[in-house]
Write a structure and sequence with these properties.
The protein has about 280 residues and is an alpha/beta fold. About 30% of the residues lie in helices and about 20% in strands. The protein has helices at about 5-20, 25-30, 40-50, 65-70, 85-95, 110-115, 135-145, 160-165, 215-220, and strands spanning about 55-60, 75-80, 100-105, 120-125, 145-160, 185-190, 205-210, 225-235, 245-250, 255, 265-275.
Amino acid sequence: MPDYFRDNRESWDDRAPAHATSPDYAVHRFVSDPTFISDVVRFDLPLLGDITGLRGVHLQCHIGTDTVSLARLGARMTGLDFSGVSVEQARLLAKSAKSDTDFVVADVYDAREVLGTDEFDLVFTGVGALCWLPDIERWADVVRSLLAPGGRLFLREGHPMLWAIDEERADGLLVADYSYFEQAEPVTFSGGGTYVQTEAEFTRNVSHTWNHGLGEIINALLRRGLVLDSLDEHRSVPWEALPGRMTKGNDGEWQLSDRHDRLALSYTLRAHLSVD
């Protein structure tokens, strides 16, 4: 049986150093400007609200730019990622940026065990994370186990309709060619590139992804006692998800170049664990 997680981990390990030096992640700006935060977290600010003093965990944090950004907004953050090389880069960022942020190497499904008995006021999951997980029910178990009573989940993610679109059509049409719903078997890719500007070449190029419908995600959380606070859909996403068919705005977000209202590209889900 293919080891999907091993392939994905090797792919992220291979790309993390290039991501850390790419202008798109702007690591140098974290070092030179103590007030700088990532474009992703800046986009999140209107819905994120005040997080001062919250104990937060960022699941699937990659190289830590969003984690450090959340810490700069006042939260006491821990980042977790299954890629050891990504976490190495995150720790280097935190040290260089003088950020008191912890980072842990672990599969997200093992987060509860690895983080011990700690409970968190904020569980944050950034865009481009859930698609690497085969089982949304297990993910919801992890979220529930990490939240303190009254704690909140903040999730911004690529829209499941976006993940269903064939990104390589020569005619430019938006065609749903992949499953909208979770499937047991992943979609496997073997491309040699990445989603940021870099001249680096990569050798670990096989990766596997799974889609999860909005209903599947929301119901998994509701079944575990979380209360849905809001679901906002957005016309943009922070990378060129459909190459050649998108335009980048001044905020770092990408929209469809032609009739951008045709498709929601990402969404923000906010929920909390009831105190009762």
